[in-house]
């Protein structure tokens, strides 16, 4: 099995060495799995459990003070599953896999996705909000509660800091609110078939119930017989251009994984002027590209 994982695009992260060690472990765990879908689920679960990453525990907090998780998974036979807006669910990727394997649907949301998780034995009562994130949320004078109050409050905060997913390039000029990069993803291949998965807590201080690119097929993740892709960055902009689908389009046109990743990010930047990253795996190579300050990746092969 060959696996590439990423730990999110954004400004240069804190604790890069510790994060790299977790990414290396995630890739190795994935590479030891029997099938590509097992590999991406296993790799992403490692990252969801580490609070340095914005997925599962340590996810970004929404404007009402709650962390809600999203994930999507796809196989190269075009079977898809995704789940979104789930409070208390650490392993969103496992719920996405349940949607793929046990339902006739491609996306299940909110309380119903949490019910589905519970019914299939995925934990639904995790404390996802870390002490640090709770403290920075509380220091931002949280909004009273109605969606209108939240919108007024988030106008100057959502995506506005130099440490946020849309941050474009090394060190932005905005204030520092709460980092919302560090989304995670994985793409795996057994030499014949592929799978891709992405998991996130979204972007800090979004409207409660906001869902970004991650569980949207073709945006946060995509997979075809030519290969797979997982994206990260400013989710609204990624969804506008269906970044992962574009990366796999380039594979289908005959480009290699690195060239496909480069072209997809070039096109994304031209169309949106925003920040993102993508990992791509094809039949022979792994590629990655980003136009933000950083994106850590790891590749593992186990045969
Ligand atoms: N950090 C990220 O990659 C955020 C994610 N793409 C979202 O918008 O939900």
UniProtKB/TrEMBL annotation:
<dbReference type="InterPro" id="IPR029055">
    <property type="entry name" value="Ntn_hydrolases_N"/>
</dbReference>
<protein>
    <recommendedName>
        <fullName>Plant-type L-asparaginase</fullName>
        <ecNumber>3.5.1.1</ecNumber>
    </recommendedName>
</protein>
<dbReference type="GO" id="GO:0004067">
    <property type="term" value="F:asparaginase activity"/>
</dbReference>
<keyword id="KW-0378">Hydrolase</keyword>
<feature type="region of interest" description="Disordered">
    <location>
        <begin position="160"/>
        <end position="185"/>
    </location>
</feature>
<feature type="binding site">
    <location>
        <begin position="210"/>
        <end position="213"/>
    </location>
    <ligand>
        <name>substrate</name>
    </ligand>
</feature>
<feature type="active site" description="Nucleophile">
    <location>
        <position position="183"/>
    </location>
</feature>
<dbReference type="GO" id="GO:0005737">
    <property type="term" value="C:cytoplasm"/>
</dbReference>
<feature type="site" description="Cleavage; by autolysis">
    <location>
        <begin position="182"/>
        <end position="183"/>
    </location>
</feature>
<feature type="binding site">
    <location>
        <begin position="232"/>
        <end position="235"/>
    </location>
    <ligand>
        <name>substrate</name>
    </ligand>
</feature>
<dbReference type="InterPro" id="IPR000246">
    <property type="entry name" value="Peptidase_T2"/>
</dbReference>
<dbReference type="Pfam" id="PF01112">
    <property type="entry name" value="Asparaginase_2"/>
</dbReference>
